[in-house]
Design brief:
Blueprint: H1 2-22, H2 37-62, E1 72-79, H3 87-101, E2 107-111, H4 119-122, E3 140-142, E4 145-149, H5 164-176, E5 183-189, H6 196-204, E6 209-214, H7 218-233, E7 238-249, E8 256-257, H8 264-272, E9 276-282, H9 284-291, H10 296-299, H11 304-324
Parallel strand pairs: 1-5, 1-6, 2-4, 2-5, 6-7, 7-9
Antiparallel strand pairs: 3-4, 7-8
Length: about 325
């Protein structure tokens, strides 16, 4: 009788364990008497709590510890959920605007878009980085901004056909194996989307804040919202939104046309509860200066377009100060 009872208890444990692990009982419910339900629930709850704790510990072990970049005080990421919204142009002019607003500040620029690096073209930089005595890459410099990009390490038209692990390794080298010197701000031009690179950077580096760039167009705003929510999930402060290509003004009659819609990013900022950092117009001057590698903030500093970028830079600095309080 004792053996029978012990065997029954063992079957009950196997039944309960199988339910916890795969969600499907190994034995049918007809084998479980009513007077055992109380014990089964207690065992199941305990098993679930233990399983959840093991999962939490496993995840904690798997996440890398954030390590600051040597010599860099604050890291600002410029991101967008969708490509083609002017993110890289905004990142470049933001970096230049930060320095233009306060000449005492040192600013660096990292192009984290491994597959489609734009910083070499926008900053008019070519060549391979030199190595220091410590085997660190020296950033290429223009307009007083030290820059690093995958575009400096490959041919200009060479496609980068890499899997995720190789991209992660490249990002690690661009971040850690560069002699950045002493920087007040490092602006990182992120690739579009919410993939491996974004997670790798936000999990490995302490980020002071994220700037989300979007046009007012509905389709762009959908992805911009995803980008903002991703940063929230990884505990990166969203400093605010930049509404790019907000309005087109005819150079002949000065009539204004909202080609991509009116105030879409402003409405999204209100929905997300974040600040609207500024509006950047759709202007020929921005496109032409960018294509020449002479960003508008330095080539046309007195233009309304340059002033718009400097206002965004000032808003970013103010928001960073608010988060430090």
């Amino acid at each position: 009788m004792v053996k029978l009872h012990d065997s029954y208890k063992r079957l009950l444990q196997i039944y309960t364990l199988s339910s916890n692990i795969i969600g499907t009982p190994l034995l049918g419910s007809r084998f479980v008497p009513a007077h055992q339900n109380r014990h089964e629930i207690r065992f199941k709850n305990t098993g679930e709590r233990a399983l959840q704790e093991r999962q939490r510990q496993h995840m904690a072990r798997g996440l890398p510890k954030q390590k600051p970049i040597a010599g860099v005080k604050e890291v600002i990421v410029v991101a967008s959920g969708k490509g083609g919204v002017g993110k890289s142009t905004t990142a470049v002019n933001l970096a230049l605007g930060l320095m233009a607003n306060d000449q005492s500040k040192s600013v660096g620029l990292l192009d984290a878009d491994v597959y489609g690096p734009s910083v070499p073209k926008l900053m008019n930089l070519k060549g391979n980085p030199e190595l220091t005595d410590k085997n660190l890459m020296r950033p290429l410099v223009n307009f007083g901004i030290p820059c690093m990009s995958m575009g400096f390490l490959v041919e200009e038209v060479a496609p980068i056909v890499w899997r995720g692990l190789m991209v992660m390794s490249a990002i690690e080298k661009l971040v850690r194996q560069v002699d950045w010197g002493n920087l007040d701000y490092l602006v990182i031009d992120m690739p579009p989307g919410t993939g491996d690179v974004q997670l790798s950077i936000t999990q490995n580096i302490p980020i002071a804040g994220a700037v989300i760039v979007s046009t007012p167009q509905d389709i762009a705003l959908l992805d911009a919202r995803r980008g903002a929510e991703m940063f929230r999930k990884v505990n990166v402060p969203v400093l605010g939104l930049v509404q790019n290509m907000s309005v087109f003004q005819c150079p002949k009659c000065n009539h204004q046309t909202h080609i991509f819609g009116l105030d879409g990013a402003k409405e999204l900022a209100q929905t997300l509860g974040v600040e609207m950092l500024g509006d950047i117009p759709l202007h020929l001057n921005i496109r032409e200066t960018s294509d020449k590698g002479q960003p508008v903030v330095v080539s046309s500093p007195d233009s309304p377009e340059a002033e718009a970028y400097r206002r965004v830079a000032a808003a970013v600095v103010r928001r960073l100060a608010e988060h430090l309080r």
